[in-house]
Amino acid sequence: MLRGGSTPYGPSKASAEALSAVMAADLEGTGVTTNVVIPGGIVDTPMIPWQAPFRREELLQPDVMLPSVYWLCSDEANDVTGRRFLGIRWDAAKPADVASQEAGAPIGWKDLAVQPVRPPLGA
């Protein structure tokens, strides 16, 4: 949700993902996992006004996220944390471990979130 016209929805989703990235790091090793599942496009929900310039039958359906959510709730994903899954890229015809790799990415834009200067810890 980084395109123009997405305020305040886009920034609120970005902050939720940033919080999820922090929680994944803070909870590492506790058995509690934090991941994000997003549809991957505009979804046919009541949030989209009926007068919006979209053909509703071409919008994503909310259940596009279900395969990744079900997998994340399974024992197979017990150790998966700090990931973002794009529902539209999840191929339910493939084994879940393959689908999760193809639909997943690190959470929170970690490749952009770098601190070149960090103050020393302690005094």
Give structural attributes.
123 residues; three-stranded mixed β-sheet; 3 strands; flat
How would you describe the overall organization of this protein?
- It is a single chain.
- The protein is of the alpha+beta class and 123 residues long.
- It has one domain.
- The protein has helices spanning 9-26, 66-72, 96-103, and strands spanning 35-38, 83-86, 104-106.
- Strands 1-2-3 form a three-stranded mixed sheet, sandwiched between helices.
- The longest helix is centred in the N-terminal third of the chain and has 18 residues, at 9-26.
- The radius of gyration is 17 Å and the shape is flat.
Q: How are the SSEs placed, and which strands pair?
A:
Blueprint (H helix, E strand, L loop, with lengths): L8 H18 L8 E4 L27 H7 L10 E4 L9 H8 E3 L17
Parallel strand pairs: 1-2
Antiparallel strand pairs: 2-3
**Order of strands in the sheet with most strands:** 1-2-3
Number of structural domains:
1
Instruction: Note the run of SSEs as H and E.
Output: HEHEHE
CA radius of gyration: 17 Å
Summary of the model, kept short:
With 123 residues, the protein is of the alpha+beta class. The chain has helices at 9-26, 66-72, 96-103, and strands spanning 35-38, 83-86, 104-106.
